[in-house]
Sequence to fold (456 residues):
Amino acid sequence: MGMPEATTLRGDNDFYGALAARKTEIVAEYHRLTPRSRALAKRAALVFPGGYTRDAVMRAPYAPFVVEGAGSTVVDADGRRLIDLWFNATSLPLGHAHPAVVDAVQRQAAKGTAYYAPNEHELALAELLVGRIPSFERIRFANSGSEAVMMAIRFARAQRGCPVLVKFEGSYHGSYDDVSWSVSPSLEHAGAAAAPNAVADTSGLAGTDGRVAVLPFNDAAALRQYVHANHAKIAGIIVEPVANRIGLLLPEPAFLAEARALATQYGIVLIFDEVIAFRVGYHGAQGRMGVTPDLTTLGKIIGGGFPVGAVAGRADILGLSAPDQAGRVAHAGTFNGNPMTAIAGRVTMEALTPEVFAHIGALGADVRQRLAAIADGLPLQVTGEGSLFKITATARKIRSYRDAATNDKAWENTASLALINAGFLMTPTLSGCISAVTTRAQLDGFLDAFQRIVQS
Fold:
């Protein structure tokens, strides 16, 4: 699969350089605005390696420390109120400290936060989810999306009795070893586009031999060729139906359809990673795309702001963990289905009606359209789906990791820092999302700030 040609651009040939020339000024302004966060970052460096205990929030020169969140805003350690456009990595669809969620968890906290026993709240949340999504015949809770992915792969291997997981280049599925391959490989080491190398995303991995195969995203022909040749050893195919690191991008329908058809033909377990994608619609991304997986991994929004994960899907596969199964799939977890998470998740999911999804989806579509107008003729791409949006600093139309990897990371990081200075919090790579409490006025302010950044 070749790479698309760059589009014809307006303006001079050093669009990225204009912002790079202002980086010193932007960093100096950030230092001026955030002295308390800077001091806290210095303290953090004395106890956390490099000052961080969570990779996702790392940024240069340091991250703003947050002391409070309410609705669509957070307050940093220096007392600045920022419009939140990432909501703890998309996990807060009702915003921060939603009154109904706060009330529910406060009442539960007075009754205890965790028991060595089942509880009715985990049952109620499970019933809600199983009742909402047709493919969810059974469900098991975990404590993170990474853990949910780990369990889904274990179920797939047990079901099939063979080891190989197929994943796609550029897809992020959490921190489990078997999915920590070719998440963001350098193009220098990535190999041929149609047959990518499996590149470790972290040190400390034992290798992929006999366990993991990496294929190009959105390339139905490459997937078909590999599966036809290797189906006897493939346990599962894991797909992001909204590819986060590639640009919050929907897969092409023909690609997803091919994955479903091949999985059905050979009895391979098709896994949808909807840890982020579940927020694009009332029935998740699978409802939007019209493709039914065998297993789905969940997290983020189903926990109402608390740590959560889940694997849901076919009863026969998840039944492999039932107590009466010989050679059962074991799955322990001290806080699986704990009442605090479960009640917060249930209250949140009950509030996420079809009308709420339609509202935040319409706001997302409007933001993407207006960002695309600002970026017209510039080496910037705007992608996303539902309430999700992403700005990527490249001239290439994005349909695969190889396209997204041509981005100018330094430009994205500097633009993100300039947005914090202006009062808007996004990821360092300019990913954003909208929650039910986000206002049009706040989005107007964000778009105005971004336009000033690209035009300065």
